[in-house]
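pinning this so it doesn't scroll away 📌
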Amino acid sequence: GLLSIPLLVALAPPMVTLLVDAYGWRVALLAQAGLLLAMLPLLSLVVSRPEDVGQHALGIENAPLVGSGHAPAAGLDNGTLLRSGRFWGVLIATGLLTTGGIVITVHVVPFATDQGIGSTHAAWLQSVNGFSAMGGALLFGWVADRIGSRQTLGLMALLQATLWSLLLPFALFNVLIPVLVGIGLCSVAAHPVFASLLSSV
């Protein structure tokens, strides 16, 4: 959940809207590109496997360290996964939930402006969705620890389907806020739940 928190998705829309209004869309895009380039050095801090820094994965503290040439455990090669119906079920279900979050992130601003909502308020709707996604990654990670990943994925699917059905008939700013909070809670939260389900597969 912590790794899935989309901080910039929540903070960027109002900042980018201010840049577009003040300096135009080209400057806003250049500013975003500059921010991404400035963050590239942070990638050198990413540790891909615990063994790469002399540690063990959780649950196998007594296993010998194998270094950076770590091989997957027996039976977990790509071919085995690709032949697993459970793997494909988890992948497709999570993909659909994640797609719902991506679609709303991409289209909420034009959707809101088409409904007569101003661009600044529309950008705030996107931020509401982003901040909710931050909370959802933690909330549904916690829920999955208590009721199980499969049940949590089903709960998220039910919640997201219900909220999407409210989007078109009630496209008013004050109604869109709770709808986007709920969709945001479910969208990024699919990542930690997917990771948990995938480990069980």
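📌 and the second one:
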Amino acid sequence: NLLSDRELKVFHDFIVKKSSVLVLLGGADIHPSLYGERITGARDLNRQRDIVELSLLNNFLKNSNGIVVGFCRGNQLIGVSQGAKLIQDIPTRFKLDNPSLHSPSREHANDRARQSSYHQITLAQDSLLERIFKTSTIEVNSRHHQSIDFSSIKSNSSIRVTAVESINNIVEAIEFK
């Protein structure tokens, strides 16, 4: 540990007090124990990072009126903080026409000619993303092999799924209150 629990709390309190936006970025898979499951497909785990970021996120949500934005892993961490579970490995859950979709491999990730990671997503009506892009579908480049498990989101949840991969209904974006 670089910081003691007390130092980490002081640091988190400082961030919450000084920041109006918390941005959570991509990276390693989230440890399944944080959403009540055992490891069945998650890899490259960093439980210490998970605990530190989840603690920061919960502190921010409890003590700030600011905005939280999550990309890839960050989106999934927000889901976990709100009680959602994750699909640990999309390719093993869904039969994908293109096996390189939702693969964490960096090979050809940005090669538009091969279209290896590009796919359509459908945006929910009246979602923030639909209002920003002024359309109901966009093409994205993503390599995440994990996703929020749609079936784990309860109807009374604060989570609203606002973008799904168009073919398999894989959660790509959420909004929450």
